[in-house]
């Protein structure tokens, strides 16, 4: 099976704070492929017990057919809240768990043990709860983005710049023009390469300015062309832009189909001429992947 066939198909992952029933309702009702109910950064320490109860209640009353797109971001495994978070929300049968500040693939082994026990306790199909780690929020995690190969339950990987800046003692993570500094672009690249090595989808991090939809569209399109398969969102207005940007354009689809057809008509050739250029088999593979991404294969 190829990587393109195995990639988890969610493009937009919309956060909603777990202590706000209204915002969770909006996220669930949006066009986001995944609604992420947050128990970590979006919830103050004193509000975490109430947020757990709200998230569980929301999951339990949700249509069972819709739960596969209702995920929960728990607190870091190395902190005091993660296991309590899981024990509270797993009876609601979430579609998956986002785990922040992971330090390497070994963290997912620990998480798998927790989830296996809680699935058994709650009548959930063993191994069905999927996992989505934030892999660059710690310095250790940055150095271990290649360690997720074969990690249990893993379907996608994403990166973050804010917690990494805190860990590094940086006062800023962006350049004067608003672009990320070198270390944070490195984090983005390491996430992309690590996800490719693990044969799962790479998901780009948030854009904080939710009003700049044109900038979001440009960035999301660029990231998709670089190999990312989706993006985190912090506001419902970002979802449609992300969904559209992470689908190839009609022009890209047409060109990819031309390349696939040309190779099919010349089965004995390893290299073909196309619009003044010579294309070899990697070009064919990329064209085939693009068509699969577009749902055309």
UniProtKB/TrEMBL annotation:
The keyword Magnesium is annotated on this UniProt entry: yes
Residues annotated to bind substrate: 73, 137
Biological processes, Gene Ontology terms: oxaloacetate metabolic process
Entry-linked SUPFAM superfamilies: Phosphoenolpyruvate/pyruvate domain
InterPro entries noted in UniProt: Aldolase/citrate-lyase_domain, Citrate_lyase_beta/mcl1/mcl2, Pyrv/PenolPyrv_kinase-like_dom, Pyrv_kinase-like_dom_sf
Cofactor(s) demanded: Mg(2+)
This protein's UniProt keywords: Lyase, Magnesium, Metal-binding
Pfam families: HpcH_HpaI
Residues bound to Mg(2+): 137, 163
GO molecular function: lyase activity; magnesium ion binding
Family matches, as Gene3D superfamilies: Phosphoenolpyruvate-binding domains (3.20.20.60)
All residue ranges annotated as the HpcH/HpaI aldolase/citrate lyase domain in the record: 11-236
Name this protein carries in UniProt: CoA ester lyase
Organism field: Solimonas fluminis
């Amino acid at each position: 099976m190829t990587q393109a066939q195995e990639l988890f198909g969610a493009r937009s992952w919309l956060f909603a704070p777990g202590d706000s029933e209204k915002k969770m309702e909006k996220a669930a009702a949006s066009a986001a492929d995944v609604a992420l109910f947050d128990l970590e950064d979006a919830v103050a320490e004193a509000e975490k017990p109430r947020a757990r109860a709200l998230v569980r209640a929301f999951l339990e009353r949700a249509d069972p057919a819709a739960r596969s797109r209702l995920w929960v971001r728990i607190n870091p495994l190395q902190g005091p809240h993660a296991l309590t978070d899981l024990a509270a929300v797993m009876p609601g049968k979430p579609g998956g768990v986002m785990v922040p500040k992971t330090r390497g693939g070994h963290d997912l082994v620990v998480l798998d043990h927790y989830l296996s026990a809680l699935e058994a306790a709650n009548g959930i199909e063993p191994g069905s709860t999927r996992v989505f780690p934030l892999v660059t929020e710690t310095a250790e995690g940055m150095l271990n983005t290649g360690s997720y190969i074969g990690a249990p339950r893993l379907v996608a990987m994403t990166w973050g710049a804010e917690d990494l800046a805190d860990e590094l003692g940086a006062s800023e993570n962006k350049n004067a023009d608003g672009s990320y500094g070198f270390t944070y672009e490195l984090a983005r690249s390491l996430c992309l390469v690590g996800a490719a090595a693990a044969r799962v989808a790479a998901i780009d991090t948030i854009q904080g300015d939710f009003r700049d939809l044109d900038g979001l569209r440009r960035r999301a399109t660029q990231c998709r062309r670089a190999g990312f398969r989706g993006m985190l969102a912090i506001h419902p207005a970002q979802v449609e832009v992300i969904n559209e940007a992470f689908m190839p354009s009609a022009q890209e689809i047409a060109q990819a189909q031309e390349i696939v057809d040309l190779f099919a008509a010349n089965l004995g050739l390893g290299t073909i001429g196309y619009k003044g250029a010579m294309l070899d088999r990697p070009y064919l593979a990329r064209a085939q992947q693009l068509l699969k991404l577009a749902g055309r294969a």
